[in-house]
């Protein structure tokens, strides 16, 4: 099976739960949820080098996994947030949507009032070379007792 007697074996480092030292300073034991692997180095120094390399790489891999998980979480939150913003923008394309958002409603009502005032004042005077100034329009001020907010509900 490749795991005994010098054969080739591998262990995904993200699955490494712990590394145990043995009585024999040349042995190194890697423990995962599913298996335990024993490695024998030529010397205690070589075993320590392996230990350092494995610990360093396993830490980097686990850190990468944590960062990827954080990135996925942030991306999911951003998708949710942008979906909500898009729905709001689509809603603002209809009068009912504008009236539901307080800030948009206030801007819309202000626009209606200003537009009504501009129409009530009549068209801008035409230049003199066109034959003079036209008669003022027969528009009045906003009707007394009528609230624009009441009209829009």
TrEMBL record:
It comes from the Eukaryota. InterPro entries: PH_domain (IPR001849). Residues 120-139 are annotated as: Disordered. Coiled coil: none annotated. Residues 1-59 form the PH domain. This is PH domain-containing protein. It comes from Pyrodinium bahamense.
